Amino acid sequence: MTPIDRYLERVSFWLPARKRADILADLRGLLLDRIEAAEAATDHPLDEDEQRRLLATMEPPVVLAARYVEQRPVISGMLAFFYWRVLALAGVVIAGIHTLIFCGEAAQARSPAELGLAATDWVRGGGLALLVAFASVTLIFFLIDSRRRRLD
Amino acid sequence: LRGRTAEPPRRTLDALRQELRRGTLVLGALAVLNEERHGADVRDALVAAGLPIDDGALYPMLRRLEEQGLLASEWRIDGSRKKRFYLLSPAGSAALAELTVDWRAQAAAVTALLKGSTL
Q1: Helix B55-67 crosses helix A17-42 at what angle (to 10 degrees)?
Q2: Which segments in chain A show pLDDT lower than 50?
């Protein structure tokens, strides 16, 4: 296995199967171009060590693969600040309400078993409410963002 | 109203330069692909014109332009191995013509504004 094969194998791991073969063929061409240019500059064929050193100047495989796989973000950058702010606010409100409920139940608990039950409810109920809040806020911002993209 | 220091922060300047270059590189690539070229040839033509671009950015850009229907490509033997050759598609030629008009209008507007600046 040549240094080029090894580099491409690492890039390949990050690429979607549908586009993999085509992108790797492109990249192999790119790397061979670089090697040919280096060979022309040094006036001798590059050995494996020299090829390895040349490949070390390339971007890390994951970065190179990411350039080919541009995915639209769920929430775009311009709305991200407000998205995280609303999410944080929802989290604080939900955690606060569930903690108050837990404190009330804990105060009325007559045995360690009842206290344990209240704590379990606090964790389960709070966790579920946080999950629902996360999904709802994300969906609402996604819809706002989609509408904005259509209007742009 | 002027800032406290004359020099803009390096990172800010780099980000602004990158933003300025992004659209320019696409227009440059479309312009040089009026004639058929392979990737390294496109890069060399851009470098010769004063628009250096990294291979890691150029090849994905060419692929994206092809996916958008602006370029057509074909693998062919060139020298000792197969290379992918790109050429403007009819839609790419139309896009280049429209973007050239936009570019000239924007360049003229900015040039007029810069004439009025202190530089």
Answers
A1: 140
A2: none
